[in-house]
């Protein structure tokens, strides 16, 4: 939004410029208030990156308190204190069971999940117990217990604080990055953790999709109508994944606009292949070598603190060996005060991970196979993720694909930057260039239900809703057309054995939900009649852009056959009800695919067809849908033809008797019409995978986190108060030894300040170490009350010369203005009589009084010592400046508004003296009176020798506070990225 103001003229004071700046700043803050910042969080297993976008600052990485761009995803608890990041890692070396890391992959897992067993094997010193209600992972620290959602929520709170410190704004919305192989349980658990952190999740975006989006937005000009294929390969701390994507310009059928689209075509992954596994193997190797040295009888693997030290050293050594052929592992006081030092070569390290290197190319091959593309059509293989920097990994991949690897991507931040671009697209207040993303389903989802066959036996039927590599978000509809009573069905994962082989258990429960439908028979009985036919029960499903599955609604679809008379009799309320039903129940016009139960098929056909996948929701509808549409169009065409024939017959047989014509017309209008009706069916959904944290359990977790937050605030307040008191005591003692401050205090004041400082110092190092924040704050206020009077005198003496200099400049400016103003009075310049004599005299008196006051007060102040009460304060000087400024401004404004007086010109002399008299006589003769012309005054004011016909309009400048808004672009509250 713009802000209007008057431009300053030469005679205006500097106050106008100050006003201009103030208005511009106010306008800036109004613009910022209308749009809020959003963030993205790349919550990796080992590191956390936070991306932010705010008005005026399109995209950037938020720095942590150490001014670093990434933070360890570690949280630690000790003696009631809670620390994060590097502090937590440091604490974890001393107290390993109190410091928790690598938590993300435990989300949505029950205690018996294979991934939990692997975690326990890698970190044996954690006390992990089972949640008695949800059967999920709970970490126990002494008497305290923390669920996995609570720990993740606290990490998200830290990310939120970094983002708010970076933008200076409150943040409530975010986009979170997740591994593509996360199932329903993991995704919903992460959303619950975000809710605990008071964050609204705009979307969960897969890591490779975020990277592909980031890669595409900076190469937008290279994308055209021809599809270009790229493969993104990632190896992080915990897992490895690969994704084949395509970039292409696609025209939107609805808006007719062309936008770039990135679509995921194939994905492969290995959820246990990563840098962590290599680090754990190196840790165990170092431990075995230490035990072989025989420096102590204690087994190093039985000591948690020694294991934590070995793990930290293994991480350092792993990174060093990426660039060096050999390096020493060395730890002081590893166990029983015994030091450890061992030379490790890169060859030895690679030998430990030989079987892991054999798995490096498998995700890449799986992604290509899923996409159906050959390697030779891939434009580039792009690397991201920290462990892709390892030379051995790059050598294996290069030799496998037979072409150079693309390393032109920020391996650490690409996903975070892509996600924050998506966050700006989804949030209000930002305007971004559209870049459409289409992700792919990794784990197919199917509906399973029982149905009675022709022989009377019940048989199980399976229908795939979302097949492997189907793009999402999308909607699907399944029709149950043989059920006439209440029934239930289940939603399950499908084809997991072929996708995951021996790792199917890592997803947890294969069954996702159980849906029970009620009042089916009741609805059918009340709705089906002679002219009403049931078309089955339709269940509408949705897979949103976060990859989370849900049942939208269930409805009974009916077709009513009505004649024109019945249609006319239908009440307005019925029509409105049917219209509303169509709006709120997935109509056939929705871009969702229909999966039919198959009433017209035999049992053999159903069995053969049961495993077929449904097509994409974005693609054209199935043949059944097309046929239905064609039938409706044909019926409409027949109705039109019938109406046309009827009209022609009526025109051709106008001579017939009215009775005959009326009968034929009645028969013609009796053609039936099909109307679709919909009745909602009550449904109850019971989740059968790890239930999300909700209800009373969620409230209990929220209270625990709130209590931790209050403890942190109290701790921070106490630390701040203690630091402020210590700093003030030291500062006061130093200043009392400096001449410039000591000269402003009496001997008694100096003695009092020093005595109080000594007293507080002794108290701080003896009895005050455990005092609360309020005690520190009270002592600080008491000390300030004694010292601030001295500090105030020093400040007055330091600032007075500058204030007097400013007053001198104002007096000189006022005197110059006064000299010019004397020439703008009636006596000196009759044509420009702007000011009166009284106004000139008033200003002259104000200047004279100010000079006299200044000289007197300065002289009196110079007689006083620096430690005596101040007579001439800076406030007195600024008050005098304000009084003089008001007098000058009054005259300046009057000069701006002054306009020359308009001089009237005499009316033109009439050419004929008898013209008007003749007109009067004519008017008298006819009885009419004509108006008398008034003389026209010609305005010819003069100003500096020029003619002016109207007052001069003031110049107006618009202030546009949004730096990134382009000229002519709508939406002042939007930021262009």
Which percent band covers the strand fraction?
15-25%
Query: Which spans have pLDDT < 50 for at least 5 consecutive residues?
Result: 1-34, 583-591, 598-666, 913-977
Query: What's the helix count?
Result: 27
Please, what is the average pLDDT? 80
Overall radius of gyration: 42 Å
What gross morphology would you assign? extended
Using DSSP, what is the number of strands? 36
Summing up helix and strand content along with how strands pair, one would put the structural category as alpha+beta
DSSP helix fraction: 40-55%
The largest pleated sheet is described as:
6 strands, mixed
Distance between the termini: 18 Å
Overview in brief:
This protein is of the alpha+beta class. Helix 21 crosses helix 24 (773-821).
Care to describe what's here?
This protein has 977 residues and is an alpha+beta fold. Helix content is 43%, strand content 22%. The strands form 10 sheets. Strands 2, 3, 4, 5, 12 and 13 form a 6-stranded mixed beta sheet that branches. Strands 19-14-15-16-21-24 form a 6-stranded mixed beta sheet. It has a 5-stranded antiparallel beta sheet with strand order 23-22-26-27-32, with no helix packed on it. A hairpin with a 6-residue loop joins strand 15 and strand 16. Helix 23 (747-765) runs antiparallel to helix 24 and helix 24 packs across helix 26. The longest helix has 49 residues, at 773-821.
Keywords:
977 residues; alpha+beta; extended; 6-stranded mixed sheet; disordered N terminus; 36 strands; 43% helix; disordered C terminus
Give the arrangement of secondary structure elements.
Layout: E1 3-6, H1 15-33, E2 38-43, E3 47-54, E4 57-61, E5 71-72, E6 75-78, E7 81-84, H2 85-94, E8 99-100, H3 114-122, E9 128-130, E10 137-141, E11 144-147, H4 148-167, E12 173-178, H5 184-196, E13 200-206, H6 207-217, E14 228-235, E15 240-251, E16 258-270, H7 275-293, H8 304-320, E17 326-335, E18 338-345, H9 346-352, H10 354-357, H11 362-371, E19 378-384, H12 391-401, H13 414-426, E20 430-431, E21 436-440, E22 445-452, E23 458-466, E24 471-472, E25 474-480, E26 487-493, H14 496-500, E27 511-517, H15 520-527, E28 532-543, E29 549-562, H16 564-569, H17 572-584, E30 592-596, H18 603-609, H19 623-652, H20 658-668, E31 673-680, E32 683-687, H21 695-735, H22 739-742, H23 747-765, H24 773-821, H25 837-862, H26 874-897, H27 915-926, E33 942-943, E34 946-947, E35 956-959, E36 975-976
Parallel strand pairs: 2-12, 12-13, 14-19, 16-21, 20-36, 25-30
Antiparallel strand pairs: 1-35, 2-3, 3-4, 3-5, 6-7, 6-8, 9-10, 10-11, 14-15, 15-16, 17-18, 21-24, 22-23, 22-26, 25-28, 26-27, 27-32, 28-29, 29-31, 33-34
Helix pairs in contact: 4-5, 6-13, 7-8, 21-23, 21-24, 23-24, 24-25, 24-26, 25-26
């Amino acid at each position: 939004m713009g802000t209007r103001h008057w431009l300053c003229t030469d005679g205006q004071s500097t106050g106008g410029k100050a006003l201009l700046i103030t208005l511009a700043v106010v306008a800036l803050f109004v613009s910022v208030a209308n749009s809020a910042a959003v963030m993205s969080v790349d919550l990796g297993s080992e590191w956390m990156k936070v991306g932010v976008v705010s008005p005026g600052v399109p995209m950037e990485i938020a720095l942590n308190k150490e001014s670093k761009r990434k933070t360890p995803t570690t949280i630690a608890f000790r003696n009631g204190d809670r620390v994060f990041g590097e502090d937590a890692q440091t604490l974890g070396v001393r107290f390993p069971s109190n410091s928790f890391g690598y938590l993300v992959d435990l989300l949505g897992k029950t205690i018996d999940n294979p991934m939990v067993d692997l975690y326990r094997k890698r970190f044996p010193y954690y006390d992990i117990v089972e949640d008695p209600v949800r059967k999920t992972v709970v970490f126990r620290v002494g008497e305290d217990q923390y669920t996995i959602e609570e720990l993740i929520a606290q990490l998200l709170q830290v990310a939120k604080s970094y983002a708010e410190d970076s933008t200076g704004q409150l943040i409530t919305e975010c986009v979170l990055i997740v591994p593509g192989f996360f199932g329903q349980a993991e995704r919903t658990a992460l959303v619950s953790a975000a809710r605990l952190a008071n964050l609204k999740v705009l979307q969960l975006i897969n890591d490779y999709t975020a990277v592909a989006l980031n890669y595409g937005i900076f190469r937008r000009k290279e994308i055209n109508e021809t599809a270009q294929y790229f493969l993104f390969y990632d190896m992080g701390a915990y897992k490895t994944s690969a994704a084949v994507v395509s970039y292409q310009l696609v025209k939107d059928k609805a808006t007719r606009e062309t936008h770039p689209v990135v679509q995921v075509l194939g994905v492969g992954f290995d959820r246990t292949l990563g840098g962590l596994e290599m680090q754990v193997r190196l840790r165990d190797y170092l431990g075995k070598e230490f035990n072989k040295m025989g420096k102590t009888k204690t087994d190093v693997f039985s000591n948690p603190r020694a294991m934590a030290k070995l793990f930290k050293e293994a991480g350092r050594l792993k990174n060093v060996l990426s660039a060096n052929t050999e390096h020493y592992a060395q730890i002081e006081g590893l166990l029983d005060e015994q030091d450890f030092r061992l030379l490790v070569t890169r060859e030895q390290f690679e030998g430990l991970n030989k079987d892991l290197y054999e798995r490096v190319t498998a995700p890449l091959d799986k992604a290509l196979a899923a996409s159906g593309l050959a390697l030779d059509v891939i434009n580039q293989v792009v690397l991201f993720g920290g462990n892709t920097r390892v030379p051995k990994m790059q050598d294996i991949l290069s030799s496998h694909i037979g072409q150079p690897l693309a390393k032109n991507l920020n391996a650490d931040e690409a996903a975070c930057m892509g996600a924050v671009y998506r966050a700006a697209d989804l949030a209000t207040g930002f305007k971004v260039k559209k870049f459409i993303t289409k992700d792919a389903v990794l784990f197919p989802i199917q509906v399973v239900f029982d149905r009675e066959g022709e022989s009377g036996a019940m048989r199980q039927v399976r229908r795939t809703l979302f097949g492997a590599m189907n793009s999402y978000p999308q909607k699907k509809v399944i029709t149950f057309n043989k059920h006439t009573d209440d029934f239930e069905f289940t939603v399950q994962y499908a084809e997991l054995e072929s996708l995951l082989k021996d790792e199917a258990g890592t997803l947890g429960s294969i069954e996702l939900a159980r849906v029970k439908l009620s009042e089916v028979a009741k609805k059918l009985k009340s709705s089906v009649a002679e002219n009403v036919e049931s078309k089955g029960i339709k269940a509408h499903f949705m897979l949103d852009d976060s990859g989370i599955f849900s049942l939208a609604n269930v409805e009974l679809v009916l077709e009513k056959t009505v004649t024109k008379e019945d249609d006319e009799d239908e009440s307005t309320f019925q029509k409105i009800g049917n219209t509303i039903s169509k709006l709120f129940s997935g109509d056939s016009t929705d871009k969702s695919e229909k999966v039919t139960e198959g009433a017209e098929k035999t049992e053999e056909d159903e069995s053969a067809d049961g495993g077929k996948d449904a097509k994409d929701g974005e693609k054209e509808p199935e043949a059944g849908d097309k046929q239905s549409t064609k039938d409706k169009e044909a019926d409409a065409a027949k109705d039109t033809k019938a109406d046309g024939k009827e009209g022609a017959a009526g025109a051709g047989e106008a001579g017939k008797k009215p009775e005959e014509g009326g009968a034929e017309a009645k028969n013609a209008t009796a053609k039936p019409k099909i109307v679709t009706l919909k009745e909602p069916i009550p449904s109850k959904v019971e989740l059968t995978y790890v239930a999300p944290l909700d209800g009373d359990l969620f409230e209990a977790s929220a209270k625990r986190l709130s209590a931790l937050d209050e403890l942190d605030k109290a701790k921070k307040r106490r630390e701040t108060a203690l630091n402020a008191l210590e700093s003030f005591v030291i500062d006061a003692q130093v200043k009392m030894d400096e001449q410039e401050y000591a000269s402003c205090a009496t001997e008694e004041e100096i003695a009092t300040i020093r005595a109080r400082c000594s007293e507080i110092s002794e108290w701080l190092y003896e009895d005050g170490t455990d005092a609360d924040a309020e005690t520190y704050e009270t002592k600080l206020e008491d000390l300030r009350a004694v010292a601030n009077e001295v500090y105030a005198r020093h400040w007055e003496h330091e600032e007075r010369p500058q204030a007097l200099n400013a007053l001198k400049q104002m007096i000189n400016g006022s005197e110059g203005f006064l000299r010019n103003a004397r020439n703008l009075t009636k006596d000196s310049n009759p044509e420009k009589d702007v000011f009166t004599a009284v106004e000139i005299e008033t200003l002259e008196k104000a200047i004279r009084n100010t000079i006299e006051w200044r000289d007197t007060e300065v002289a009196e102040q110079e007689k006083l010592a620096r430690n005596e009460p101040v007579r001439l304060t800076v406030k007195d000087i600024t008050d005098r400046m304000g009084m003089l400024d008001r007098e000058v401004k009054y005259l300046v404004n009057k000069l701006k508004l002054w306009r020359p007086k308009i001089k009237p010109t005499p009316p033109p002399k009439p050419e004929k003296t008898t013209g008007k008299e003749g007109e009067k006589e004519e008017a008298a003769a006819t009885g009419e009176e004509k108006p008398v012309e008034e003389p026209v005054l010609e305005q010819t004011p003069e100003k500096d020798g020029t003619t002016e016909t109207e007052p001069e309009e003031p110049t107006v400048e618009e202030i546009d506070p949004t730096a990134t808004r382009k000229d002519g672009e709508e939406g002042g509250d939007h930021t262009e990225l």
